[in-house]
UniProtKB/TrEMBL annotation:
Lineage: Bacteria, Bacillati, Actinomycetota, Actinomycetes, Kitasatosporales
Sorted UniProt keywords: Acyltransferase, Transferase
EC identifiers of the protein: 2.3.2.-
Protein name as it appears in the record: Gamma-glutamylcyclotransferase family protein
Protein species of origin: Streptomyces gamaensis
Residues of the signal peptide: none
Entries under Gene3D superfamilies matching the protein: Gamma-glutamyl cyclotransferase-like
Length: 148
């Protein structure tokens, strides 16, 4: 669901780190053939925790999450962003979100930092994960994809 502010500002790329990464199931369902560009990138200041078949990014100083920066097709960005919000069960302002979509700096493979949308664990879930969750080693899910 895009807001009026998002529509006025225009599209931002989306940083993906889980099932929306190339080669993962939701990439094919939601993004394949609908992007203008996909490139390796790193989200600094966050770590990954295991979820039930997918990871959660939790904002934490000093951490790094490896993923891809996805530039949505400019003709369809509103529709695609709304579909990603629905996939992540994110509704702006709703108290019971598991994920929230936030704008954060992301470092591309060439070292350039850009602003991007990132779905991170909502505060109550982030606290539970930090206390009881299992961290994903190396900040890359599925494991072993670092440096891609």
């Amino acid at each position: 669901m895009t807001t009026d502010e998002e529509s006025r500002r225009g599209p931002l790329p989306v940083f993906v780190y889980g099932t929306l990464r190339p080669g993962q199931g939701n990439h094919g369902r939601y993004l394949a053939g609908r992007t203008a560009a996909e490139e390796p990138a790193v989200l600094r200041g966050a770590v990954l925790y295991e979820g039930p078949g997918f990871p959660y990014a939790v904002e934490e100083p000093g951490g790094e999450v490896h993923g891809e920066l996805v530039t949505l097709d400019p003709e369809r960005w509103r529709t695609l962003l709304a579909a990603l919000d629905a996939l992540e069960d994110y509704v702006p302002g709703r108290a019971r979100n598991h994920y929230v979509r936030v704008e954060r700096p992301v470092v591309r493979g060439d070292g350039v930092t850009v602003r991007a949308w990132v779905y991170v664990a909502a505060r109550p879930l982030a606290r539970r994960l930090a206390a009881l969750g299992v961290r994903v080693p190396g900040g890359s899910w599925p494991t072993g994809r670092e440096g891609r």
